[in-house]
Amino acid sequence: MATHSSSPDTSVYDKVTEAKHVDEALSDNSKEALDYDPEYTPAEQKKIIHRVDMRLISTCGILYCISLMDRTNLSAAAIAGMNVELRLNVGFRYSTIALVFFITYVLFQPPMTVLCRKIGPRPFLAGICFAWGGVMIGFGFPTQWTSMIPLRLILGVLEAGFFPGCVYLISTWYVRYDLQKRYSVFYLIGCLASACAGILAFGLMQMDGINGYRGWRWIFIMEGILTCVLGAGGYFLLVDFPDRAHRTALWFLNEKECAFILRRINKDRDDAAVESFNFKKWVSNGLDLKIWGFAMIFFCLTTVSYAIAYFLPIILRNGMGFSVGASQCLVAPPYAFAGIVMFGTAWLADKYRVRGPILIGNAVLGLIGLPMMGYASSSGVRYLGVFFVTASANANIPACMAYQANNIRGQWKRAFCSATLVGFGGIGGISGSLVFRSQDAPTYRPGIFAAIACNLLIIVIVICNTIYFRAANKKVDRGEKVLEGLPGFKYTI
């Protein structure tokens, strides 16, 4: 049975349809067409978009920052005494705890993305953030390793709605060739979390013995409290979807400014209007093969990025011989380098309106770094390889999100694609949690081979997509084909 979402504010859509003849005269998505607006000069438009950036990207990025920190602090706690106290070094106990999170994380993403649209991103995203903070505090108290499993399963349910919800929300606010820089800044803030997580964990370890709790327990307890605080603040700072943001976000945008955002989106891809939800139509988006190609690219990327996130401190400690403190702190520089590569490639991608070549270039960087990690005899060279691999996988994540967002249309298709993309990312998390096995130390070569295969598969999929996209775009130019239900729409290569 189809359910119906609340209809958008009619006064906003009245504003959107003003000067319709102007929009038709400027039907292309060139920069000149997008910059023209009957109510605002280009300078005024930049100020409005900058306010969106500051409110939307900053808030989502900070919350994602704490999400990544909470998701990946397992490895920091592991070398801080958790593995010894809970006997996680026996068999596959640590890997089991790492991967069970992704079972519920994957299964709950499609319904969670629909709920994000239905409930609204402010109460939904802030609420689940606050709730997983409470779960994170609970990680500080188990006395048996089996108690960690239900906590990780619950954490997976709560976080299932966050990342795809943010990806979907951001995509509704920007035109196609503004997206990768925004996704990069959003994800870059998360990378800063990954970079600082080890240093923060090392600091929290120094609380060892306070109130009788070991240092690894304080990592979970204190980071859980921080998550609850940020989740509560997120309710007041997050914004709604653009068609109703003027009603729900105080001191943000007024009705006229929201109408400008919607006009701009309609000029670019004509999907600002929200259709009534229909389950059959929503599921039928799965018949589009390119959606699964995007998802498979994301699977390959997250396999590598999660493997690095979960095991880098352990690799630095057991594989390269660094001390516990050094292993915690040496996590930071590779993620800082990844941030530079990420934003630099995003700037190039948006400026020149390309996506596939960026994905291939970053994958090649990973193919250079992985053999260095696995085969170099010097710890310094192996650590340099970590820089390349970390930058490759993390810089390609916003590139893949923009690649997907640029080549689809429609609000519910966008929601479906966000769920499938991040869902496959969760499956990549499962494989990533098994890639670097303790018995493969110190070289971890089976994991190196798996990561090389992932980068090669990314290159193959992008090449296949490029061949298809070029052929489809030529048919559009000849008037033989309509893509994504919009005359004149062309794929971004």
TrEMBL record:
Q: What's a Gene Ontology MF term here? A: transmembrane transporter activity
- Pfam families recorded for this chain? MFS_1
Q: Does the keyword 4Fe-4S apply?
A: no
Would the keyword Transport be found if you checked this record's keyword annotation? yes
What domain of life does the native source organism fall in?
Eukaryota
Q: Which keywords has UniProt assigned to this entry?
A: Membrane, Transmembrane, Transmembrane helix, Transport
SUPFAM superfamilies according to UniProt:
MFS general substrate transporter
- Transmembrane ranges? 91-108, 120-141, 153-173, 185-204, 216-238, 291-312, 332-349, 356-377, 383-403, 415-436, 448-469
Q: Where in the cell is it found?
A: Membrane
This entry carries the following GO cellular component terms, namely: membrane
**Membrane topology of this protein:** Multi-pass membrane protein
In Swiss-Prot or TrEMBL terms, this protein is called Phthalate transporter
Source organism: Lithohypha guttulata
Lineage of this protein's species? Eukaryota, Fungi, Dikarya, Ascomycota, Pezizomycotina
